[in-house]
Design brief:
- The structure is a homodimer.
- Chain A is an alpha+beta fold.
- Chain A contains 6 helices and 6 strands; from the N terminus they run ααβααββββαβα.
- In chain A, α2 crosses α3 and α3 crosses α4.
- β6 of chain A pairs antiparallel with β6 of chain B, so a sheet runs across the interface.
- The complex binds manganese (II) ion (2 copies) and zinc ion (2 copies).
- One zinc ion binds next to α6 of chain B.
- Chains A, B: Keywords: DNA-binding, Iron, Metal-binding, Repressor, Transcription, Transcription regulation, Zinc.
- Chains A, B: GO terms for molecular function: DNA-binding transcription factor activity; transcription cis-regulatory region binding; zinc ion binding.
DNA sequence: TTATTATTTGTTAATGATTATCATTAGTTT
DNA sequence: AAACTAATGATAATCATTAACAAATAATAA
């Protein structure tokens, strides 16, 4: 944890930004809830527990900044809000998601499944891939079992 | 064109919805601009040229309805608006996109590049895939050439 | 140190996309 | 025609995000 904060601090300094207490508190929340996919509002409420004086705009600003630094990725699952997702340490590409259409659960896939596809895109479409977004919509394991039980 | 409208009409009737003049005008705009990725507002302005009396809310309602019927897919490229994209006729899955980070151009890939990946997801994650969203972010052919010329 | 300048923050107001409300219209069924 | 239902258009409401701006904080110069 401290290790990752140190690294983010360095990334900020490299662009001559500072790791202010507000920014640190925000990063800590993101680290603590790494599995989740929190909205700005969610994050704001959690940061408030650590730093009650923080303002919502600061959280938005921090998340924007962390997006620029590619510390977080901003995603949209189609409900009306943006969600912020910590990049896996050292990952070149954004990880994938499995979204259950029944229960809404979101599972992460860290393994990069798109290497072959990207090669194809670069070769056949002459498009130079920098990053990707991949989400599967379907039925999660739990819901499949639940459905089978009720039949 | 007429053929596709007929088919959409049948899909609507199958759920006992009607193809009203407003809905038809909206569908016609979507067909005429099939390559594009229009926002609700964009579509509203285009429909107004055919049917000036139409209201914005009706356009939203129609797009919502067409989404339910899977005639269109609602997507979000990260600017603040939802965009609506006609499904390719008979396609089981949503097509892919290449978004240029420099000029913003959006290219479509109709070929399904994810069959192997989906098989893997189903086998190794026990997740039953119904659909997917795949977008690549990078540099389009044109911008690559432009960049090379300037070096 | 003190004065000056640049960053960052919190509060608040503004914006802009989407949704809800509701009276009106069009279409169907008796 | 009367009664009922579905769909529409105008408008107001909602809600996430951004902008504005004065106050606080940190960095730098004098
Ligand atoms: Mn994730
Ligand atoms: Mn498309
Ligand atoms: Zn589920
Ligand atoms: Zn380009």
């Amino acid at each position: 944890m401290e290790h990752r904060i140190e690294r983010i601090k360095k990334q900020l300094h490299a662009q001559s930004y500072k790791l202010t207490p507000q920014r640190e508190a925000t990063v800590r929340v993101l680290l603590e809830r790494e599995e989740d996919h929190l909205s700005a509002e969610d994050i704001y409420l959690l940061v408030k527990e650590k730093a009650p004086e923080i303002g919502l705009a600061t959280v938005y600003r921090t998340l924007e900044l962390l997006s620029e630094l590619k510390v977080v990725d901003k995603i949209n699952f189609g409900d009306g809000v943006s969600r912020y997702d910590l990049r896996k340490e050292g990952a070149a590409h954004f990880h994938h998601h499995l979204v259950c259409m029944e229960c809404g659960a979101v599972e992460e896939i860290v393994e990069d499944l798109l290497e072959d596809v990207e090669k194809k895109i670069e070769d056949e479409w002459q498009f130079q891939v920098k990053d990707h977004r991949l989400t599967f919509h379907g039925i999660c394991r739990k819901c499949q079992q639940k459905n089978n039980a009720n039949n």
